[in-house]
TrEMBL record:
PANTHER family in UniProt: METHYLTETRAHYDROFOLATE:HOMOCYSTEINE METHYLTRANSFERASE RELATED, UROPORPHYRINOGEN DECARBOXYLASE
PROSITE patterns: UROD_1, UROD_2
UniProt GO BP: protoporphyrinogen IX biosynthetic process from glutamate
Record InterPro entries: UROD/MetE-like_sf, Uroporphyrinogen_deCO2ase_HemE, Uroporphyrinogen_deCOase
Gene3D superfamilies membership: 3.20.20.210
Protein name: Uroporphyrinogen decarboxylase
Family, per entry: Belongs to the uroporphyrinogen decarboxylase family.
Pathway the protein acts in: Porphyrin-containing compound metabolism; protoporphyrin-IX biosynthesis; coproporphyrinogen-III from 5-aminolevulinate: step 4/4
Described purpose of this protein according to its UniProt entry: Catalyzes the decarboxylation of four acetate groups of uroporphyrinogen-III to yield coproporphyrinogen-III.
Catalytic activity: uroporphyrinogen III + 4 H(+) = coproporphyrinogen III + 4 CO2
Annotated site residue numbers, Transition state stabilizer: 78
Species per Swiss-Prot/TrEMBL record: Trinickia dinghuensis
A Pfam short name: URO-D
Keyword vocabulary terms for this entry: Cytoplasm, Decarboxylase, Lyase, Porphyrin biosynthesis
Amino acid sequence: MPSTLLNDTFLRALLREPTDYTPIWLMRQAGRYLPEYNATRGRAGSFLGLAKNPDYATEVTLQPLERFPLDAAILFSDILTVPDAMGLGLSFAAGEGPRFAHPVRTEQDVARLRVPDIESTLGYVLDAVKSIRRALTDAEGRQRVPLIGFSGSPWTLACYMIEGAGSDDFRTVKSMLYARPDLMHRILEINAEAVAAYLNAQIAAGAQAVMIFDTWGGALADGIFQRFSLHYIDAVVRRLVREHDGARVPVITFTKGGGLWLEEIAACGVDAVGLDWTVNLGRARERVGARVALQGNLDPTVLFAPPEAVRAQARAVLDSYGNHPGHVFNLGHGISQFTPPEQVAELVDEVHRHSRAIRAG
Ligand code: CP3
């Protein structure tokens, strides 16, 4: 049965079409700040046990939507499933970040690296996409909100694949970049092919928009960012299927710390650019004109301030963008695990309320 979207505000804003209000979703909206997430994670045994089980992934994807009137759902998974599918051996030690048992360090490691077969290695993600689409849709085929699929950028994946874990200074990956740019380009080319195949498989399974997380692009020098991160985001975007079931599938890219390169990022063929909180949205809009929609960009730590301050800062972000189509409200990075959930309710309410007021003049 073809589904009809009850709320397509998010997709319309990404395509810079007029909307009655500004849609909002939050990066990491399903996660540890929600007690119900921690309960499901406890039953699953671990984060990977949760992410690799489509029923649990569906359950936690829907949790924030039960609490708050958010305008989009995002697939519950992680960017590191792709290097895991490449055989690097992902684990999450309790209280620590991610770790790979087999990081990519030598010429031999690079020579062994392959684009994984998506269906056989990441089938659990595609099953989760299908299951979430079903859970968002009622018996009459009416879907509450659209579903976002995602991947890490080729560069951000390479950071974890080479470091073998998170890093403060990216010494190992940057050393390889400067010492052996040929090896780095080889890894990034494989990653770009893998990411494109992965996102296209998510789109075929039912993802209605996709987002590329370039979390560590902003750690690169000017000139290096363009050649080692943006070039490969461009290579992914050029390979993406942009229409599915007769609907346009918008593409968002987000480089944390990428405000400096906004014009160049906006030229890579995406529909929308995510921005962190260091950028003024109004000035950003002047720089890119109507070429792309913008997503962002409240500082996530605002959610620790009293409700009135949360509301005032939400209005400041909306006012900075002004009364124009093409804004999707979000945080400038993922929500903190220590955020009180009630504060998210205040934020979502104020974004909906104040954006309607802006449109009413
Ligand atoms: O936004 C969503 O709600 C969807 C789920 C999602 C997760 N990770 C779940 C997750 C998304 C979109 C991601 C992306 C991701 N993962 C990024 C890019 C975006 C960003 O935040 O910068 C990165 C760099 C990762 C890698 C990663 N995953 C790290 C460094 C960690 C450990 C640190 C941390 O924040 O816990 C994870 C684990 C992870 N991914 C958790 C969640 C909810 C917490 C795991 C837990 O439950 O213990």
